[in-house]
Amino acid sequence: MPILQVKNLVKNFDGLEAVNDVSFTITRGEVLAVIGPSGSGKSTLLRCLTLLEKIDQGTVIFAGKTMVETSSKGLVQYAPEEQLRKIRPRLGMVFQSFNLFPHFSVLQNITEAPVRVGGLTEAAAQEIAFELLAKIGLSDKANAYPYQLSGGQSQRVAIARALAMKPDILFFDEPTSALDPELTGEVLKVIRTLAEEKMTMMVVTHEMSFAYEVADRVLFMDKGQIIEEGIPEQIFRQPTNERTKAFLKNFNYGSRF
């Protein structure tokens, strides 16, 4: 059974369809890359799936539990808040702008949610935090504050913060778009390691080479719709849709292509 099922999802802003009749599934351990031009609805889709935006139509089922569905009369019905409170911590989100708490140290940024939301003791949360900091290569930054970090370091801390809640799915919204090119690699390395460990992930990205090498499947979105879907080899080497071909022809994938 898929861990996430999305059926006919629609999200409107002021009458404009940001996401238009989108359907797909994610299986446990899969890495799904979402690519497409700016304004194609990729980030809005992620925000709908992580309950940061309410949908206007469709059904989302997570781990066999219906988060939201649309009745035969067109009425959108979310699960009771008590059930959604249990689901939210299992949906990790990493934003393109880091969103670290500026007045918290790195350690506090990572332990805050496990303690306040997850109910862990401070000691247990710190143990997890130190393990994650070692994993992302920032053990020496536990007592640093966000203003003392580079963009790449801040994004790695944001990933550690999301992982601290032990989510079932980790969503990434353009995790390298706010970074200088020389800092992009250190963040992608962490995501690549998570993929090797079979972390279930949905990654909105403009890093085409990364999507080709790491993703199990790729969705190409344009104007709020999924235009094409397939394995990386098919999407990048033999796209069938003319819009996909036009989008990808301007990218240089390097020697591996």
Polypeptide structure, described:
The protein is of the alpha/beta class and 257 residues long. It is built from 9 helices and 11 strands. It has helices at residues 42-49, 81-87, 106-116, 122-135, 151-163, 181-196, 208-214, 232-237, 242-248, and strands at residues 4-13, 16-26, 31-35, 57-62, 65-70, 76-78, 91-94, 169-173, 201-204, 217-222, 225-230. The chain has a 6-stranded mixed beta sheet, sandwiched between helices. A hairpin with a 5-residue loop joins strand 5 (65-70) and strand 6. Helix 3 packs across helix 4, helix 3 packs parallel to helix 5 (151-163) and helix 5 packs parallel to helix 6 (181-196). The model has no long low-confidence stretch (mean pLDDT 93).
Radius of gyration, CA atoms, in whole angstroms: 18 Å
Give a short account of the largest sheet: 6 strands, mixed
> What general outline do the C-alpha atoms trace?
globular
Helical stretch count? 9
Q: Which sequence of strands runs across the widest sheet?
A: 7-8-9-3-10-11
Q: Are there runs of 5+ residues with pLDDT below 50, and where?
A: none
Count of DSSP E strands? 11
Helix content: 25-40%
Structural class: alpha/beta
Alpha-carbon distance between the termini? 33 Å
Helix and strand element order = EEEHEEEHEHHHEHEHEEHH
Task: List its salient traits.
five-stranded antiparallel beta sheet, six-stranded mixed beta sheet, alpha/beta, 9 helices, globular, 257 residues
What secondary-structure arrangement, pairings included, does this model have?
Layout: E1 4-13, E2 16-26, E3 31-35, H1 42-49, E4 57-62, E5 65-70, E6 76-78, H2 81-87, E7 91-94, H3 106-116, H4 122-135, H5 151-163, E8 169-173, H6 181-196, E9 201-204, H7 208-214, E10 217-222, E11 225-230, H8 232-237, H9 242-248
Parallel strand pairs: 3-9, 3-10, 7-8, 8-9
Antiparallel strand pairs: 1-2, 1-4, 4-5, 5-6, 10-11
Helix pairs in contact: 3-4, 3-5, 5-6
